[in-house]
Prior knowledge:
Blueprint: E1 2-4, E2 9-14, E3 19-25, E4 31-36, E5 42-47, E6 51-58, E7 61-69, E8 75-81, E9 86-91
Antiparallel strand pairs: 1-2, 2-3, 4-5, 5-6, 6-7, 8-9
Amino acid sequence: xxxxxxxxxxxxxxxxxxxxxxxxxxHEADVLALAYNNKNDIFYASGADSKIVAYKYVRDEWVLVxxxxxxxxxxxxxxxxxxxSTLLSGGVTTDIC
Length: 97
């Protein structure tokens, strides 16, 4: 399980005991939204810094594969559509990117 945190990190938890297995820091502010593809091998994270990052599970670890700033303000939600091929983001600016 992956959770976004108020310190800008995404933390990967082992679900049986809730132990933090790994942390990833790519944001300068709160992580507010996460989205996963259908295979659970790609996840996206965004938040108060408006940056969207993408991680892919490769050879038993999560690897950063992309980083984009599509909006000018907080991103509040992420949604994958078209079987995970299209990522939509929405936030304070009311733009859908």
